[in-house]
Amino acid sequence: MTAAPTVNSAYPAPIDDLLPRARALAETLGEIPSRNRLKKELRVGSPKANALRDALAELLAPPAAPAEVPEPTDRTPDLIGPPPAIPDPADAEQTLPLDASPLEGQPADPGTNITTEGTAAAPVAPRRPVVWPALRQ
């Protein structure tokens, strides 16, 4: 018994012709095959393998369930309360004087203890100039 020879064509097979073979491969594996597996099994290039993977994903994806919309309840108006009270700016100035510190016992401006005196940069040795050989003709 001899196997039928595979015919290599100069015209590549369209995706619609390859899709049944790719689907059979996916059912055999139990998942959508990788791009490299599709390239090897179906003897196609990267762009066609990507297109086959996308087509298989759409074909084998479970149908989307309709989104459930919650029914409005009678309690919805109860959740909305009165707007929050806006404090009066005049009252805020009276409660905190300008010279008061934000924390008790802490100075208002602690300052910094960073000094830059006494730090000297390390001396940098000058580089030797690069000498390129001159070629005579």
Give a structural overview.
The two termini are about 75 Å apart. It is built from 5 helices and no strands. α1 crosses α3 (about 45-60). It has about 140 residues and is mainly alpha-helical. The radius of gyration is 39 Å and the shape is flat. It has a domain at about 20-60.
How would you summarize this macromolecular structure in one to three sentences?
This protein has 5 helices and no strands. Helices cover 36% and strands 0% of the residues. The protein has a domain at 19-60.
The count of strands amounts to 0
Estimate what percentage of residues fall within beta strands.
Answer: under 5%
Secondary structural class: mainly alpha
Order of helices and strands: HHHHH
Give the oligomeric state.
single chain
Rg over alpha carbons: 39 Å
> What is the percent of helical residues?
25-40%
Principal-axes shape call = flat
Q: Distance between termini?
A: 77 Å
Put simply, the count of helices is 5
Mean pLDDT over all positions = 74
Low-confidence runs (pLDDT<50, min 5 residues)? Answer: none
Specify the biggest β-sheet: none
What is this structure's SSE topology?
Elements: H1 15-29, H2 35-42, H3 46-60, H4 76-79, H5 89-95
Helix pairs in contact: 1-3, 2-3
Question: Any key phrases for this structure?
Answer:
flat; mainly alpha
